[in-house]
Design a protein that fits this description.
alpha+beta, Alpha-Beta Plaits, four-stranded antiparallel beta sheet, 10 helices, 38% helix
Length: 248
């Protein structure tokens, strides 16, 4: 169940706890031969609320007033709180850079099967210690490639998850600045795969400026079309060989 917390969120002081950078995480995975991904079961609901927080999260019905006992989905700082909590549970594993955690998604990576089993056991032991629940149907154990954060990650390459593409291409051309920023935000996420993205998107970013009138000229419509086409033709990015010399 997701509540309507927009009013409460406007009065909530933002928790600026940092999240892992997706692109750095994907690069980190390139060093792995075996990957296991795990997903926490209803992650936020596994955290109890403090008494003073419960008073702000009331549900008023004709049958009476009810209170949330656990963190609901939709609260402004819930992701930051969960990320901080999970980072304190696995400080050593995260510092050794073989465990990656983005909110409720955890990824274990190793370059040998025996080491992978050892690391997997370490994580499961801590999961059991803190009584964390894992969603088995969303887990992938010991894979050499898998889907992560809208990408297909393998030992050799990094590609875009093509299942994400059709829905985006069906959307109509943006009619205002908000729609254009949403379009650019999605494509910017995959900019490493899109040749000359910065050049193509320059004119589109310009009309999102507050001082600029939104107008889709022929030049901008052409740039918009080229960016969409680039997504369908996006190449696989080969992972670097870290054990050889780089020439810059």
């Amino acid at each position: 169940m997701v509540g309507e917390f927009r009013v409460l969120n406007t009065y909530t002081v933002s928790d600026r706890y940092p999240f892992p950078r997706i692109q750095e995480t994907l690069t980190q995975l390139s060093k792995a031969k075996y990957i296991t991904s795990m997903d926490a079961l209803r992650a936020f609901h596994q955290n109890l609320l403090m008494p003073k927080a419960k008073r702000l999260l009331r549900i008023i019905t004709h049958c009476g007033i009810y209170y949330y006992l656990r963190i609901p989905f939709g609260i402004k700082n819930a992701p930051s709180h969960y990320q901080r909590m999970i980072n304190t549970i696995f400080p050593t594993e995260l510092s050794e850079e073989w465990l990656i955690i983005y909110i409720d998604d955890s990824i274990i990576c190793s370059d040998s099967w025996s080491l992978h089993l050892e690391r997997f056991a370490r994580v499961l032991h801590k999961v059991s210690e803190v009584n964390m629940k894992i969603s088995l149907k969303k887990c992938n154990f010991g894979f050499e490639d898998f889907k992560a954060s809208g990408h297909i990650v393998s030992v050799l390459s990094l590609g875009i998850d093509k299942n994400k593409v059709p829905a985006v291409l069906l959307k109509p051309i943006p009619h205002n600045k908000k729609e254009m920023m949403s379009f650019l935000g999605f494509f910017s996420y995959y900019r490493k795969h899109l040749k000359e993205f910065a050049i193509l998107a320059k004119s589109l970013y310009r009309i999102c400026d507050q001082q600029t009138v939104f107008e889709m000229t022929q030049e901008r419509i052409k740039a918009y079309g080229k960016i969409r086409k680039a997504l369908t033709e996006s190449p696989l990015l080969l992972m670097p060989y870290w054990n050889i010399r780089f020439i810059l």
